[in-house]
Amino acid sequence: MASRRILITGLSTYWGGRLAQALEDDDEVEAIIGIDRTPPKVELDRTEFVQVADHHTLIRRIVQGAEIDTVVDTRLVTDSSLTSPRKAHENNVIGTMNILAACSGADTTVKKVVFRSSADFYGAEQDDPAFFTEDMRRPHPARTPIERDIVEAERAVADFAAKHPDSTVTVLRFAHGLGPELRTSYSRLLGLPAVPMILGFDPRWQFVHEDDIAGALHHAVTHELPGIYNVAADGVLALSEIAGLLGKPLLPVLPPWGTELALPIARRLGVHIVPEMVNHLRFGQGLDNRRLKATGYRLRYTTRETVEKLREHQRVEPLLRDRSGQYRYEREVEDFLRRSPSVRRETERDESAGAN
User: Fold this and answer.
1) Which parts of the chain are coiled coil (predicted)?
2) What whole-number distance in Å separates Cα of residue 351 and Cα of residue 356?
């Protein structure tokens, strides 16, 4: 099914904004509507923004009124540093159920749902396989509130898919992303002068570049991809290799036992490690990405190249940060400049200058 009228939930997130920008360049897309509680943080041209909460009756009215055929849900919070456990649960579980309810019903126009999930669905344990495939179940119970949210949200999506066999339901489980525009607990950890680690552990980490995050979402919208797909770059790196590529020393500041008890002390030292990251610092994780590549998507960056790109950004970031008058996108200002009759266009300025 060709996606022509698309609703993006979580437009103010990095993932929602980047996807909207990519879809705006697609001439076959007739309409792009984004919803969120807060305005988008990136410049958008033909994407319509509706400020609305995740309430299924309100979203259903938008879906029906705009005859939406594809819904892309990018709202999932996978970083507990961003909000409280209660608010994360409301967004991740209750919000997902409301989005799916808005897509349901005998009279629905929705024929495709794309759900952005996370590799944290699998967890990270000592006896994990070298690479998780999409067919593998989570081998251990979820340890953290965020992991429990992800498992519960995916369960709701699976129930929706079973009840709507005529719809294409795609779940994308993303590895942790890195890139100049992404701000996550992992990017902050790797942005420290030295890379913290747990004494005696050198875990394998795998990333996905921010461009491949946007690319995979766009690929899922423009192709028929029923089922679950891991989205991760080729290759894994030991944490010591990552530190070496970044040109930083390793700092074994966390004890192998009672690690969670040491986190408050680490925070006072400026090392912010969220609970869902602790086992990644012990055991790491690997994802098998062959199913996604079999659909025709070609990842632009390997894990090594993603880290190298981060290193390039870290080198120039202090210079960019020191610039005065740096541009910041504000939707209301851009709308005024784009649409207000009071703003003189460039051609009007040229005509005025010629007359003088």
Assistant:
1) none
2) 9
pLDDT tens profile 133-189:
999 989 999 999 999 999 999 999 999 999 999 999 999 999 999 999 899 999 999
| SS3 at position 266 | helix
Residue 47, both tokens: 């994407």
Residues 327, 328, 329, 331, CA torsion sign: negative
344 found inside a domain: no
Do β-strands 237-238 and 204-205 pair in parallel, antiparallel, or remain unpaired? antiparallel
Question: What sign for the dihedral angle of Cα 231, 233, 234, 239?
Answer: negative
- Residue 233 φ/ψ, nearest 5 degrees: -70, 160
Please report, for the domain that includes residue 61, its CATH number: 3.40.50.720
- Number of structural domains (the chain) is 1
pLDDT confidence tier of residue 266, bands split at 50, 70 and 90: confident
Q: How many other β-carbons are positioned within 10 Å of the β-carbon of residue 129? A: 12
Residue 35 has φ and ψ, to the nearest 5°, of: -125, 150
Q: Is the distance from CB of 231 to CB of 213 less than 8 angstroms?
A: yes
DSSP string, 173-184: EEPEEESTT---
Token readout for 76 is 């999932």
Q: Rounded CA gap, 122 and 132, in Å?
A: 8
How is residue 289 written in tokens?
Answer: 């990405």
Cα 91 to Cα 102: distance, rounded to the nearest angstrom? 15
Domain hosting 74: range is 5-321
